[in-house]
Amino acid sequence: MDMDALKHRGLVMLGCGKMGSAMLEGWLKGALDPAEVWVIDPNPSDELRATDVRLNEDLPEAPGMVLIAVKPQLLDDALPQVTHLGGGDTVVLSVAAGVTIARYAQDFGDGTPVIRAMPNTPAAVGRGITALVANEGGQGSLDLAARLLDAVGQTVRLESEDQMDAVTAVSGSGPAYVFHMIEALAAAGEAEGLSADLAMALAKATVGGAGQLAEDSPKDPGTLRADVTSPNGTTEAGLEVLMESLPDLMRRTVAAAAARSRELGA
To answer: What's this model's pTM, rounded to 2 decimal places?
Structure first.
């Protein structure tokens, strides 16, 4: 399926919370018109109402795509509203963490094209990264899914669905790890005598700037770290403490998130 076919047949969104809203905002900037989007959401925000999409209206008989954007815990209650659209060539695109392609094939019917995606919350500022994987029927629509999700950042394609739990643990949950690092860095600055506002401003700008530099620089992060680490200097003193515990702590953090992702999909 291509974009012209999607625009003609329509896109249905099951759920439109923070992630769905971020994607919808990107699409309405030029990829799709409001009249081409149907949204099912029992508690629509004022912002969603203001978009002029087809909110809680009767669905088209054969939309081009159904986006599943509800939390996994709500899926059992929400999914029956759209499963009648399966069994044909309507593409099911899911951003629900931990929910497998096999689950959607079971609910929508064998042969339904399914694409599973894992975006992250920086999509709200156009800086997300989304991993994609599809069943056999969904392979032909991966380019369309990537084009849609490029509206909120980068996309990557996985070799197999088995990789999705690790992706969820690294990039899906990863922003929360970084936000907590900002909190911890600011608190450490306060402990050294800075005001709360100043410490937070320094921490936010430092983490944000370092992330941008790591993404844009041709150098790998290890080289960038070495570049700012003078022998016997302040950075080296701090890193001696951080590097003693951070690698193992991050390994356990990602492992715990990946394990929970597998539990959700079971």
So the answer is: 0.85
